[in-house]
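User: Run a structure prediction on this.
Assistant: Running it now.
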Amino acid sequence: MVKRKKIGQHQMPGEKGECLDAEEAVENQVGPKKLGGKSTDEKMDESISPTEEIQVPQKTSKGEGTHECPKCRKTFARKSALDRHEKVHKGEKPFTGLECGRSFSRFANLAKHLRIHAEKKLFQCLECGKSFRWKSCLTTHERIHSGEKPFQCLECGKSFRVKSHLTVHERIHSGEKPFQCLECEKSFREKTHLTVHERIHSGKKPFKCMECGKSFSQSGNFARHLKTHTDNKPLECLECGRTFRLKILLMNHKNIHQGEKPYRPMACRKSVGQGERKSLKCWECGKRFSRSSLALHQRVHTGEKPYKCLECGKTFSQKSSLNSHQRIHTGEKPFECLECGKSFSQNANLKNHQSIHMGRKPFECKECGKCFRLKDSLRSHQSVHTREKPFKCLECGKAFRWKASLSLHNRIHTGEKPFECQECGKTFSQKSNLISHKIIHTGEKPYKCLECGKTFVQRFPLIIHTRIHTGEKPHKCLECGKSFIRGGDLVKHKLTHIGEKNYKCLECGKSFITESALTRHHIIHTEEKPFKCLECGKAFKQKEYVKIHHATHIAEKCYKCSECGKKLKSAQTLKRHQRVHTGEKPFKCQECGKSFRQSGYLTVHSRIHTGEKPHKCLECGKSFSSWGSLHSHETIHKGEKAFKCMECGKSFLSGHHLNQHHKIHTKFNIKYSC
């Protein structure tokens, strides 16, 4: 009888690296109960033929005399077989080889493994010269050259070279997942998938890059990552010459030239028609689904959301949606981009990101030719041309182009502010507002302008600000050619060409293009001045006037004129001031050729030719081409004479009249005394 304590006596010195070669042989063969008809009481140094038939106890139908595994519900005819099987779930491997230290759950597998240290590879493949220790392994290997796949799936007809591969494949049809994670109870069809999954909980990443120190949980990801350090892109597109590191990226790229959608591998399924796969009809909307998909779809109509997040209480209609949501709380991002290493919580987000590396923008706008990576981005863009706003607020009737904008707007009515500052407890309706608010506590403004040194809380305001220095105005009106720094300014400007003024003042009947313009106009009638200067308490009707006024309190003015030494509050005002010295007048009237130092002066001047007088007096109905003229006119009705001569004390309605009056004193040198 073979003594377990004598295992080491049958081991012979050999290379430990050979243990890895034996793994496939051990796993592909079921542990013997009877070897060649001989009992295991015979001595180990008798030759054991690995090609002889291995008899395994057959499963019996569930009933009397059967033993069921409580973990995976698998049944066994004998209690001893169940005890051996349970070691798979427990991870017990009590049998260890003394030569290499490798452990096994069954003694028979250890007995096979010991042959690695004692035997040579006697069976050689005549095609490629590769050698094997067992004839059964050679037989399996030869099927690679012959293409033979003798093990066929009875469900879908797919064939396999190895029976173990067929066994794993059949679990797709049966739905069996015998390997369960003890941490989260998730189940898997293959043990290797469970091993990789368990590294998520343990945080183990055994594959470490020696170049950058980055670690990986899977060997495949590690191998692909190593290619990023070599800068070697051996796969070249024959159409455009672009090179890629991975074959899958090249295949996806080729679809751009062929005009095809990227290929998506699908799970094995029965050979039935599309109509048969989607045979069940939803009576609410008429769509067709498979049986399992229909049950999930009907929750859209019923509003059923049985899966609840224990962290925040949010509910979901599908378990997969809950699993994706929970990664927000755990911070888990299992989907990693092999090109740049960026990680994502959802596989769909990873696929969208990978299109950046492939340079694919397959969705083109028919109106302007602009291309997009995502179909949703194209739909959102098309609403710019159609002016369609399909998402309407049920409370106030306001419409939006995007559903996300409507969701944010609804929080105004509900008062929901889910984002809370941990420092002061203040809450916000948008996450971006919370991020901006947090910087108040730190005082940090990380985004600095390299031209003038001005700092900003967020990156986007800095981008807009730099256009002041560069003069860049990327948003151009196709009607008149006028350009703008901000996209929002262009949208407002386009309304002037349409000529529609849908917002009417109920007090005076004046109409406006935008709702915000009407709101600002209402303040004229109320005489309200809601915007107050924090320095001196002076109040203003508009926020912009406060900003202009506040600049007068700033003691240190950074921008100094090199000609006259005058200090100004901004680079833009300095630039306008310097035109006084240079005589530059870049703004020219197309009608009469007259030039002006500022664009505002040209705008007012052009109204002489057009006859436009947009500024109307509310008292008498008289119209004026400029706001200053209207303001001077309004003093007539009020009886105010705000412009007083310092020489003689006489008052005037306008500054122009005061200037004319001053000439009397300067010409005749007339002085008045009290």
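The CA atoms of residues 590 and 606 lie 9 Å apart.
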